[in-house]
Design a protein that fits this description.
The structure is a single chain. By secondary structure, the chain is α+β, with helices and mostly antiparallel strands. It has one domain: Alpha-D-Glucose-1,6-Bisphosphate, Chain A, domain 4. It contains four helices and seven strands; from the N terminus they run H-E-H-H-E-E-E-E-E-E-H. A seven-stranded antiparallel beta sheet has the order 1-7-6-5-4-3-2. The longest helix is centred in the last third of the chain and has 38 residues. It is globular. The N terminus is likely disordered.
Amino acid sequence: MAAVQPPYGWVGPAVSAPYSLRQIGQGGAVTSQIHATVTIETPVEKVLEFVDDPENLAKCAPMVERVVEVGRSGRRVGNSFRAIYRVLGIPFNEEFRVIGFEPPRRHTPHRRFQIWQTFHGRARGTCTWTTLEAEGNQTYASLDAAYQLMGGVVGRALDALLVKRAVQKEVDQMLENMKRQLAGQTMLTR
């Protein structure tokens, strides 16, 4: 199967997110960045619906043991959940909160949705989910995260040596699992 190229004008991850780690994190501390993207054979609305449900995180992310305390605000902004997961055997209990949502703009050649989240616990940071309609039923989905592992110098050293690579691998696997699940759902509804 030939590799699918993003549509003209796709510039990758959100470069002008309205929220940054600097606003919520420790000023001046080193921040790790994670970026992952996947092309999914399903409409953009299905991808948004999937990403918008935190229970799906536990179904796709190998490191997530469970999602608890899901809070719905009635709109996307303000929704929250707690994810319990392990990275390299280290337990994490992180609270995620949706702090921004950008529906598609009118009169654009491709529909794009973005969801911004903050998280805190042993790590503190932000995530941006971006979904972009491609040709036909293809959707490009990306996750961009910036985080700081708590623990000062020891936390930064642990992150640089081990954690960042493990998290990147887990996020890549999560998106591939999400792709398989959504492709399976699309096949069942055709």
